[in-house]
Amino acid sequence: MMLIPAIDLRGGSCVRLHQGDFGAETRYALEPAELLRRYSALGATWLHVVDLDGARDGVLANRAVIVSLAAERTVKLQVGGGVRSLSVIDDLLRNGIERVVVGSAAMETPDVVEAWLREHGPTRIVLAFDVRVAGEAEPEVLTHGWTRGSGTTLWQALERFVPCGLAHVLCTDVARDGALAGPSLALYAEAVRRFPQVAWQASGGVRDAADLAALARLGVAAAVSGKALIEERISAEELQPFLRDASSPASTSATAAS
What we know:
This protein is of the alpha/beta class. Helix content is 34%, strand content 27%. The chain contains eleven helices and twelve strands.
């Protein structure tokens, strides 16, 4: 399993939100490029970048910063937040982004997103599903920066896109995001069981190396972590087993190529 460090951008600065709440923001005195170089020095080969302004407003607002990060060419970038048109996808891919993350559009205009997958291929597009897990209920997909329920379960959403050759899925349990409460292991175990052909990226709750090891045992392809890494809660030595090339899915669970 690969660890993919995350950088969340708001107004050009590195921040973290607690459970997606824009009123519960922690701002870090680190330039995005400085953080990218730190993760590259640790051995990371991929970086997950989120335009939080774009996720909320539907318009990519931190494009200049993102393009400058891609120009560093030390890691591969997957970028999301406000990606709701083919022109934005084309622009990001032309400017060195390796994979583009599509979120709300997958729920609102699924036919259009299917066309994007056909246009660029499933290795260049990641579908992101932010979910709320409530008790015994199946995980519901949220949209618009986690502010709206869709009435659709994660499993129903996957059934729509897997036949199109979907390869990469980023799944975030919003209750765990930024909370350092441990990842939603039951959610990801069920995800891998139901859709083993998908390269699952688990996001939300990672707090230590034991959490990374637990996710690896489930067979997810990658773990995306922001707060635990930016606050250096996991030592460089503990990170090393998980900082390999993430371009291929976890061998134990997924067969989709990158």
